[in-house]
């Protein structure tokens, strides 16, 4: 099994603070994530000034005085200088930097700073010019599919391919766009449907509370896991409440790495450890009673007992009907040379 790509989604949980952004990078690196991901957007290009916050944003920001998406997002923008600073800091911490672009200008920004992997968020999967622009870059692309039906995912993939991205460079994440996502709304089997329908690498972008669902997704074949994390769930902001705290992120990644090891190579064969236990655990054909020389063996004469270093019980029918060459005692472990 290939190593699962784990994206620790910092998103906008930096609250506009470079200090917090670097602390989030520290946490992701310490937890063992492959990527730490932020969000890149120009608020003026993303929302209109009269756009209201989403329901989950209002619920998760109970201390916010305004219901304006524009005002909320403007405080969370990362400038190009901040991108460079965060990329340099990620290099120091030996973790890959990633960010999601939410508008055309931001795609250019990320391309200009050398990003080789582009993440398409669920909200942009029906944004034709956005898909065309990313497709034309011919980079690796991860597509989140929250709120989608299969035909919308198919259309998005076809657009990426038609504008220059190879199918081998595209992966699709099953996702439910609700923060937090109720367990009954996860539908992990949809990830397998996407894989079967599109014949692409698949993964899972998780918004549930806790860590068990992404771990289950890995056991089902996810090659990418994305999960929001924060320094503290109690912080003010749209995504903190549905994010993992540092210890939870570390526990999730450790569990995923263990699941990777447990998945194995799909061949059903005994391990080295099992081979050492095989003789002690399996049985051989023994005698259930004392027998005299020349006795013709019947099934009542036999009993199956450990260890398994004698004649296998699976060969019992080849033993029945044979004569014994010498007198033998109860519990004796039969050998082929005892028979004629």
Protein architecture, described:
- With 340 residues, the chain is of the alpha/beta class.
- It has two domains: 259 residues, TIM Barrel, CATH 3.20.20.70; 67 residues, Antifreeze-like/N-acetylneuraminic acid synthase C-terminal domain (Type Iii Antifreeze Protein Isoform Hplc 12, Alpha-Beta Complex).
- The protein is 37% helix and 16% strand.
- The chain has 13 helices and ten strands.
- It has an eight-stranded parallel sheet. It has a two-stranded antiparallel ribbon with strand order 9-10.
- The protein starts with a strand and ends in a 21-residue tail after the last helix.
User: Unreliable runs, pLDDT <50, ≥5 residues?
Assistant: none
Could you give the distance between the termini? 51 Å
Order of helices and strands: EHEHHHHEHEHEHEHEHEHHEEH
Mean pLDDT: 95
What key attributes describe this structure?
340 residues; Type Iii Antifreeze Protein Isoform Hplc 12; eight-stranded parallel sheet; two-stranded antiparallel ribbon; 10 strands
Question: How are the secondary structure elements laid out?
Answer:
Blueprint: E1 5-11, H1 18-31, E2 35-40, H2 43-46, H3 55-60, H4 69-74, H5 80-93, E3 96-101, H6 104-112, E4 117-120, H7 128-137, E5 140-144, H8 150-162, E6 170-175, H9 189-198, E7 201-206, H10 212-219, E8 224-228, H11 246-263, H12 272-281, E9 284-287, E10 302-305, H13 316-319
Parallel strand pairs: 1-2, 1-8, 2-3, 4-5, 5-6, 6-7, 7-8
Antiparallel strand pairs: 9-10
């Amino acid at each position: 099994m290939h190593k699962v790509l784990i994206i620790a989604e910092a998103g906008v949980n930096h609250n506009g603070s470079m200090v917090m952004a670097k602390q989030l990078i520290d946490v992701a690196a310490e937890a063992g994530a492959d990527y730490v991901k932020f969000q890149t957007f120009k608020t003026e290009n993303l929302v209109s000034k009269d756009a209201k916050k989403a329901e989950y944003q209002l619920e998760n920001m109970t201390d916010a005085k305004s219901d304006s998406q524009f005002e909320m997002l403007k405080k969370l923008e990362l400038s190009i200088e901040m991108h460079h600073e965060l990329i340099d800091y990620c290099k120091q911490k030996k973790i890959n930097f990633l960010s999601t672009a939410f508008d055309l200008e931001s795609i250019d920004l990320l391309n200009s700073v050398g990003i080789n992997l582009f993440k398409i968020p669920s909200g942009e999967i029906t944004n034709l010019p956005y898909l065309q622009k990313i497709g034309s870059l011919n980079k690796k692309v991860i597509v989140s599919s929250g709120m989608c039906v299969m035909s919308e995912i198919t259309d998005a993939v076809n657009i990426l391919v038609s504008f220059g991205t190879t199918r081998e460079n595209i992966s699709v994440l099953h996702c439910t766009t609700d923060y937090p996502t109720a367990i009954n709304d996860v539908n992990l089997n949809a990830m397998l449907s996407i894989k079967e329908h599109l014949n692409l690498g698949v993964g899972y972008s998780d918004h549930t509370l806790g860590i068990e669902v992404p771990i289950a997704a890995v056991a089902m074949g996810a090659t990418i896991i994305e999960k929001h994390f924060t320094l503290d769930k109690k912080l003010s902001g749209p995504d903190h409440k549905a994010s993992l705290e540092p210890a939870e992120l570390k526990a999730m990644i450790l569990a995923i790495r263990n699941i990777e090891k447990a998945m194995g190579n799909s061949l059903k064969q005994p391990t080295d450890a099992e081979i050492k236990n095989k003789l002690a655990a399996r049985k051989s054909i023994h005698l259930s009673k004392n027998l005299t020389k020349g006795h013709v063996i019947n099934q009542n004469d036999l009993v199956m007992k450990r260890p398994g270093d004698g004649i296998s019980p699976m060969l019992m029918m080849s033993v029945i009907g044979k004569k014994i060459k010498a007198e033998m005692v109860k519990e004796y472990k039969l050998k082929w040379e005892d028979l004629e």
